[in-house]
Amino acid sequence: MSRKSKQMTDESKPWRQSPFERNKKYIVRRDFRAMRDEFRCNEVLTYDVDHYSRHDNCTAYLFYDTDNKRRIWDVNDDTELEIWQKYFSLLEIADGT
Question: At a CB cut-off of 8 Å and minimum separation 6, what does 83 contact?
């Protein structure tokens, strides 16, 4: 791997642990506008992955909605990550057993 490739890979690794679990469903708790997206109360999103941008000093949390459209929630480095609970809740789905 070239030095530049390694640097780009390292830049995309978030410096803090994601509060979301991959492939789990989350429900949006309230309407809100993010840096690159808008979210509506009761939307169901499936969490995919996170990426860090050193240039923007933020972590992007990537989800997919029910239409398989990618959704992005950006969180600046100076924002407490616990704020996610204000906007999202883990969607508990009963399995019927």
Answer: 75
